Amino acid sequence: SHDMCTCDRNFQGADCSLRTCPFGKAHVDTPRGDLDASLTIGDHNDIILAGSTLYPYGIIEGFPLMSDTAGTVIANTAHDYMECSNKGLCDRINGLCECLPGYDGAACQRASCPSKANSSTPGSGQGERSNTNFKVFNANSAFHGRAAEVVQRDQCSGHGTCMTIEQLAFLDHGNTYDLWDKDVTMGCKCDPGYTGP
């Protein structure tokens, strides 16, 4: 108790020198499984580990408690809040997420709109940072500082507007889209005379 660091908020590691990256709703959840070796998976309110620097409110084994738009609790859910939304890698030095191809935002919480130009989201452009050439991990580090570079540009090929799926649904005769990804799934609303993703 006298030779251990207690880290300030958003810092972690044995000497508190590592940063914690932003959290967002996970596009895909990582199952945690039987963390306490009890041979059972706990419920959404069974906290296994409390007070960690990364999860100060605790870690659970079961799916998070979620409800549908009618308020009905859903027993088998996903999309809990995760670091870099489970679609990016955390640069522990700067506390910035490096998003995987096709995702952007501070916590990689949005799906990127298609773009023909290179951007800070590897894989959304052409050339050395296209999907086929982007490597998630190499021998040194998975992070190369790309998160701090220019944001997405030339989205929708410059001939449309990048919008959320909720907005696109509403523009289609006032449809309602109210699922978990209403603010994170993105698409192009093409200008007149243009089509395609």
Quick summary:
By secondary structure, this protein is mostly beta strands.
Write the layout of secondary structure elements.
Blueprint: E1 11-12, E2 18-19, E3 23-25, E4 47-49, E5 59-60, E6 66-67, E7 73-74, E8 81-83, E9 88-91, E10 96-99, E11 103-104, E12 110-111, E13 160-164, H1 165-171, E14 186-190
Antiparallel strand pairs: 1-2, 3-8, 4-5, 6-7, 9-10, 11-12, 13-14
Keywords: Disulfide bond, EGF-like domain, Signal
Protein name: Sexually induced protein SIG 1
Disulfide bonds: 99-108
Tally of separate helices: 1
> What would you call the structural class?
mainly beta
Low-pLDDT residue spans? 118-143, 145-151
> Would you tell me the overall average pLDDT?
76
Domain EGF-like: 80-109
Protein name: Sexually induced protein SIG 1
Organism: Thalassiosira weissflogii (Marine diatom)
Keywords: Disulfide bond, EGF-like domain, Signal
Please characterize this protein's 3D structure:
- The structure is a single chain.
- With 197 residues, the protein is mainly β.
- The chain contains 1 helix and 14 strands, in the order E-E-E-E-E-E-E-E-E-E-E-E-E-H-E.
- It has one helix at residues 165-171; strands at residues 11-12, 18-19, 23-25, 47-49, 59-60, 66-67, 73-74, 81-83, 88-91, 96-99, 103-104, 110-111, 160-164, 186-190.
- The protein has a two-stranded antiparallel sheet with strand order 1-2. A two-stranded antiparallel ribbon has the order 3-8.
- A hairpin with a 5-residue loop joins strand 1 (11-12) and strand 2 (18-19).
- The longest helix is centred in the C-terminal third of the chain and has 7 residues, at 165-171.
- It starts with 10 loop residues before the first strand and ends in a 7-residue tail after the last strand.
- Mean pLDDT is 76; it is low at 118-143 and 145-151.
- Pfam families: EGF_2.
- Residues 80-109 form the EGF-like domain.
- This is Sexually induced protein SIG 1.
